[in-house]
Amino acid sequence: MAVRGMAGALSACVLLVLAGPALAAFDYGKFPGTTVKVKLIGGTQYEKLYTRIPEWEKLTGAKIEIVSSKNYFDLDREIKQDIAGGTINWCVASNHTSFAPQYGDIYIDLKEKIPADELALYVPGTLQSSEIDGRLVQLPRVTDVSNLYYNKRVYDDPKVRDAYKARFGKALAPPATYDEFKQQAIFLANPPNLYGTAFAGKDEGMTGRFMEILRANGGDMFDKDWNPTFNSPEGVAALQWFVDLYNAKAVPAGTVNYTWDDIGQAFAAGTTAVDLDWPGFAAFYNDKSKSKIAGDVGFAVAPTGSAGKRGGWSGSHSFSVSKACPTPDAAVSFVVFMTNDESEMMEAEAGNLPTRTKVFADVVAKFKADGNAYMADMFQTWQTSLAEARTPPLVPQWIEVSNVVWPQLQAAIVGQKTPKEALDKAAADARAILQDAGLLK
Amino acid sequence: MSLLSSPRAAPYLLLLPAILVILAVVAVPLGVSLWSSFTPYNLTRPATLYTFIGWRNYQRLMQEPDFWWAFGRTLVFVTVTLNLELVLGLGLALLVNRITAGQRVLRTIMMFPMMFSPILVGFQFKYIFNDAVGLVNNALFDLGLIREPIPWLVEGTLANIAVMTAEVWMSTSVFAILLLAGLLALPKEPMEAAKVDGCGPVQVFRHITLPFLMPFIFIAMTIRSLDVARAYDMVRIMTNGGPAGRTELLWTLMARIGYQNSQMGMANAMGYVSILTSILFTVYFYRRLVAARRYMEGVE
């Protein structure tokens, strides 16, 4: 008995020692008299988190000075100007997976400052996507991946369902493949009152959607040596998908000028049947004061391409700590606090995908307990897609390459060029950019 | 020492602070941007500012069809909008000048579009011309004039017309205000003399009013030809130069290259081509202005 008791106690001790690091809470430290200058992304959906700043200030005795609060594109320009002018005098900046590779080595490797057991609490794939050349230059705050929203009023309409069954011999259900997506979008379109869908037709939004379908078809943007490969047959098929939708008038003609807000507004207005979009729109679509389809929004995972894969184009909003920061420990404490379980829960309750594993389960449980099956369903659907999600290529030239790709995609969509011609021109331009950068000989 | 105390040096010494300020705020940035146009300067790699590559950026530009399309489109954009703004502004100024009551209120109303930020004007016209929810298409549908939405911001010619419409709406009042000032300063005697001699309103306008207004017109043209670059924000919001580069102007292309792609050296090379074009426009308008003033002196 005594031996068993000892063995039991020893086992418990061993377990405690082993479990110790995982259970240890992150030490936010004390930094009285320290002021941490930060540049943060601004905007309604982002600023709720900043109401936690006073809590961190009280906890650590430090102060936060927000020196800039802008949208990502303006913040990106400002940071580039700071790099150019050698005027980085701030400690923390909002960052994004797509933007991070451009900034060279201005940010510290957070792996050197944050204990591994704390980092283990973040979604592993998301954390890995936050690395550049093996350095963790950003701590992810919320993640984006797209899935399908569909208008149940259209999909549940008996007349529409019967007509679809009669035409295709199959029950109308949210599309499982991109071919089915196209078929349904064309079938359901009844312009100008209802379009099948809409897509982001410019900027990185266009390049990203193309990349998503290209990857779902089994292709990719570059090979392992950085040769552009998106003008492959898989790429041509991906671009043809957009061309077919456009030619069939299943999308608004103006979709080539649309960005996310335009698409969101169109879906909320009930003028599109199905929408491949981000998680952040879920709450907006179900808000009766803003959306005409509130109460009738369905979710489904993103379709697969001809390779049977999902191309999930994903990325995370994040925080980075600059090398120029005179008080890096305080800055690291701040970014961990802003992405800890409580902060993540606050963001998740607003409809954003958290970057800590535990919070996914917690927020779904909370929504279920609150009887909010709609939001619980959204989180479960989006979490499924995250497993297969991939970021854009994490090289500094990505945005530059994207800027030569999307105008060519547009040219094919509006009928100025064939998909092959457009992609060949984009590939040639991308090749020149990568050669100039020394990535490609 | 004697040189500095010389009476001849006094004006230069007095002007020195102004010269230094101008050098600091104008000449130095211009010099740096000119230098950077001969480098592969990338915003995120500051050291590239010190790599001299000669005319390479300019040579690339010369061979780049997208640049020349944007250049040509910019010339058309500036020419068409300036002339439309002139004609409409002149018409507005003549109408307001004839009104005796409420002229001040009208002048204030006329200035409203100038008070909007170009970004707001961009959003406003983006939704006016939106193919799905836009005001224009909705009105045409309600009137039964169309059965399918017109893709105003997509089809090449229509998209350029839409962008020009926004620019003309925003800036016609600049012409109107400047020309109205000219009309208010117009001496009455020559017009009364012409009327006594039996000239009709068209003849009075053609031979007296218009020649008197010409210096004001050319001043307005000079200011506006330089100022039209304010349309950047508006075009960026409405079409961002697209689709497929159909509305790409020099300044949307420059902003994309310089700020989004960080290729500031290349963007500055484009900027210098653009500056040279602006200088040509300015020189042309100044010459016309001087000619108009000579004509006026002859008349007087």
UniProtKB/TrEMBL annotation, chain A:
The record's SUPFAM superfamilies line, in alphabetical order, gives:
Periplasmic binding protein-like II
Where is this chain primarily localised? Answer: periplasm
Statement: the UniProt record of this protein carries the keyword Signal: yes
Q: Does the keyword Transcription regulation apply?
A: no
Keywords of the record: Periplasm, Signal, Sugar transport, Transport
- Provide the protein's localization: Periplasm
Q: Per its UniProt record, what InterPro entries does this chain match? A: Bact_solute-bd_prot1, SBP
Q: According to the lineage, what is the superkingdom?
A: Bacteria
Gene3D superfamilies given for it? Answer: Periplasmic binding protein-like II (3.40.190.10)
Q: Where is the signal peptide?
A: 1-24
UniProt similarity note? Belongs to the bacterial solute-binding protein 1 family.
What is the official name of this protein in its record? Answer: Multiple sugar transport system substrate-binding protein
From TrEMBL, chain B:
Domain (ABC transmembrane type-1) spans 71-285
Q: Does the keyword Transmembrane apply?
A: yes
**Could you tell me the keywords of this UniProt record?**
Cell membrane, Membrane, Sugar transport, Transmembrane, Transmembrane helix, Transport
Domain of life of the native organism: Bacteria
Q: Which InterPro entries match?
A: MetI-like, MetI-like_sf
| Gene3D superfamilies found in the cross-reference section | MetI-like
Keyword presence, Cell inner membrane: no
Q: Kindly provide the name given to this protein in its UniProt entry.
A: Multiple sugar transport system permease protein
This chain's source organism reads Labrys wisconsinensis
